[in-house]
Specification:
The strands form 3 sheets. Strands 2, 4, 5, 8, 9, 10, 12 and 13 form an 8-stranded mixed β-sheet that branches. This protein has a 6-stranded antiparallel β-sheet with strand order 3-15-14-11-6-7. Strands 1-16 form a two-stranded antiparallel sheet. The protein is mainly beta and 248 residues long. The chain is built from 1 helix and 16 strands. The longest helix is centred in the C-terminal third of the chain and has 8 residues.
């Protein structure tokens, strides 16, 4: 596992974000959305990773419980329901949420559970992870982005990676949802099949003349953070790291 030295975190209070209104789903055909045009120009943007494990490779249910294609194929209603990934007796799963960042002043780094680089909401990098969920609890993993400091951002790359003893992405139903303090939710499903992949670049947020634009990526890679860095040109120096065992 890769980690980066020299990052610091800090305590902060978080808002829950707006959960009303219809959601925007980013897909291959409709891969971008402007946060500014959606009215998400201030407050904290909540970025949530949630996932469930498949009990059957035949099911196609969304992490939130919805069916994909059920009316087109009624037999799907009789397929086994997926179960929450935190059912530890069934499987040991650990997906982690992280973010590569580049600020307008050229500062680059990463926010991620590995290495304890949880960030800071009120100081650079204006990103903060709320913690590390080891077993896919319903609340998932959450990162906050301080949109009051949006002019300080140049680009962000939100990614998900598989930690030790976790099945491949094809065994999970994973979803990343953006909850702005105002405006609609933005949903990205990690629904493509990549049996051997260990990491996935989920989305980019770029500052385009003061407008933060979200781009769907859903790009699976077979390495870890260093490979994502190489693909997106961050230029950081990576080393090997581990997380402490759960319960410590």
């Amino acid at each position: 596992m890769a980690f980066l030295d020299g990052l610091r975190g800090g305590a902060a209070a978080f808002d829950s974000g707006n959960t009303s209104g219809s959601a925007i789903e980013l897909t291959k055909r409709h891969p971008t959305v402007s946060l500014s045009k959606e009215g998400a120009v201030s407050g904290n943007l909540r970025v949530n990773l949630s996932w469930r494990m498949r009990t059957s490779d035949f099911g196609e249910r969304r992490p939130g419980g919805g069916l994909r294609g059920g009316w087109r194929n009624p037999l799907k209603f009789f397929q086994p329901e997926v179960v929450q990934a935190h059912t530890q007796s069934m499987v040991n799963v650990d997906l982690d949420l992280g973010c590569l960042y580049e600020l307008k002043d050229g500062t680059k780094g990463v926010v991620q559970p590995l290495g304890g680089f949880l960030g800071d909401l009120n100081e650079p990098p204006y990103l903060k992870l709320s913690g590390d969920d080891r077993f896919g609890a319903p609340s998932g993993e959450t990162m906050y982005v301080n949109l009051d400091q949006k002019d300080e951002f140049k680009r962000l790359l939100v990614f998900v990676y598989i930690y030790d003893q976790t099945p491949a992405f094809e065994r999970t139903q994973a979803q990343v949802t953006l909850y702005p303090s105002s405006g609609r939710q933005i949903v990205i499903d990690l629904d493509e099949r990549a049996p051997e992949a260990r990491s996935c670049a989920v989305l980019r947020i770029e500052n385009v003349k003061g407008d933060l634009v979200v781009h769907r990526e859903v790009r699976f890679v077979y390495g870890f953070q260093a490979e994502l860095d190489r693909l997106y040109g961050w230029g950081l120096q990576w080393g090997r790291g581990f997380k402490p065992k759960a319960g410590r």
